[in-house]
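Appendix C. Worked example: Putative Clp protease subunit
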Amino acid sequence: MFERFSRNARAVVISTQDLCHELGAERVRPVHVLLALTEESSGVSDLLAAHGITTEAIATSLGLRPPTPSAHPEPTAPQAPLSEEDADALRSLGIDLDAIRAAVERQFGEGALDGQGEGGTQDPDPRLSRDDDEFDLWAARRRLGWREHVRFSRGAKKVLELSLREAIRTGAREIRSEHIALGVLRSDDETLRMVLRMRGVDVRAVRADLENRSRRTA
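Step 2, the predicted output written as structure tokens:
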């Protein structure tokens, strides 16, 4: 199904992963898809903004800090190592730090996460280097590009299925960002519905504009 998505639509789907990592979400849900749509670049984000659907508006409704535009900015100051309490919290989210350490050491040598490679002399890979004595595990994982895949919830999967139906219904040859947006608006997810109600969004009006856009670009 993914091969039917346009480049911008694929970017929307992929960016839901970045958003969930930033927000600490365990699953991609319909509201995360809507958040990703508010940052897409084909013009759908402007259409949504005209109806009051913006990144800031959604984040405010959910009591969240708006996600940063940059996917993974480097820390500006050295950070203390993770405490055992932090590690326990991460394990509760399905993140196994011991497994991460083992994987790093298998690829880059024993002691890689302690700032030393095999033999205890230097880092085996420059992407792991730090100027300070403390090592930031999360910064290293970002440099190495290792990130857990966030699974799509049933509701988010349904949104993608609905986007295909919307593309077919409006006569499009591929699934574009506006079709994903139409799929989101058809979702019965309670959190998403709550956000739209709180922002006073006229769902019918948004749908009409999205459908007009889809037919113009079909």
